[in-house]
Amino acid sequence: MILLKTATDLSFFLSAKKAQGLQTGFVPTMGALHEGHLRLVEHSKKNNNITVVSIFVNPTQFNDPQDFTRYPVTLENDIYLLEKTGCDILFLPSVPEIYPSGMQLTQPYDLGYLETLLEGKYRPGHFQGVCQVVHRLLELVQPANLYLGQKDYQQCMVIRQLIHLTALPVQLEIVPTKREPSGLAMSSRNLRLSENEKKAAAVIYQCLVTIQAGLKPGSLDSLVTEATAAILAAGFDKIDYVSIADAATLLPVTAWDGQSKLVALVAAFISGVRLIDNLTLN
Ligand code: AMP
Question: How many angstroms separate the CA atoms of 111 and 123, rounded?
């Protein structure tokens, strides 16, 4: 695996590979890698000649400064895991490499209503920061395929909109969520939880499965109310949302027609750590 730290080195290296007709797959991450990230790398390896992974804890997407400073960093282990998985290039840029003219966003991205609900509502500015970094990375890497995790359901929709807005010639591939045996979605933020907290946190997935099992046409209110109560009873401090939404638009669905595709989404805090998860229901 080749480790590159500057935008110039990365562009130089990849343009030579492109000239040879080689196709690149790209997996952007913030590090503290786990098996979920490695799934994305494996998907990329299967379908591309070269797989590039970036590790960059992007300051502009953290609406909570404490979340940024506490974000786990496990670089040595990340490098070990990526080598083991067969990643070809690790891009490890500094802030000035990503934002050479500063972090200020000059032209906001038109994300429409996606910025006003769920993650957009509870993390103001977050998706603008995500678009800012992914746009820059896509311009540098110019991949044929981009791999994102379904765990960040709304983020996938936002990046689809970014690709539409920028007309970048990249195909988006969404990889299913990798879970712990308990059902807890793997997340870098799980590193900040104790074993007991991780056990308790599995309630989120249990609730998503219960919602799925209880789905029937008509009002969905009681499914949401019961899931909310169960998450709080398991020891979560605060819930941002438990939502059942249209899987294509993310607009809330309070009464189901028995036909439309639905997704259930949760964001909640345990011991100050914010976890998100989702499950497509039908
Ligand atoms: P992050 O490092 O959290 O920014 O995540 C980098 C990429 O990995 C994103 O596309 C995430 O959606 C994806 N990802 C994170 N956790 C998982 C998981 N448990 N399963 C699959 N993909 C994941």
Answer: 14
